[in-house]
Amino acid sequence: MVIFPLNSILTNVSLSGLDTPVELKLKLIPMLQHMHHDASLASSSRELLQHLVNSYPSTPMVIVTLHTFTQLAASSLIDIPKQVVSQQSCTSV
Fold this sequence. Notes:
Blueprint: H1 6-12, H2 22-28, H3 39-55, H4 59-76, H5 80-91
């Protein structure tokens, strides 16, 4: 079994671009919850999640993105206040 670094997979598959189907994005987004070992990587993952939830306001995308946001914030213990504000703004829309 070959194991690829997660960050190289996510940079090769553009989650923020239009060339990746939404169904594939929904499957790849939960992998971002594991990007908590480095503060800058966790921060860039959080920014990508914020971009995705703003760009794709459909219910499945919001659910998957907010769940991943929560898992990432709980594991990295940074940006928790931003996470709370983010969820409040998404649920008020």
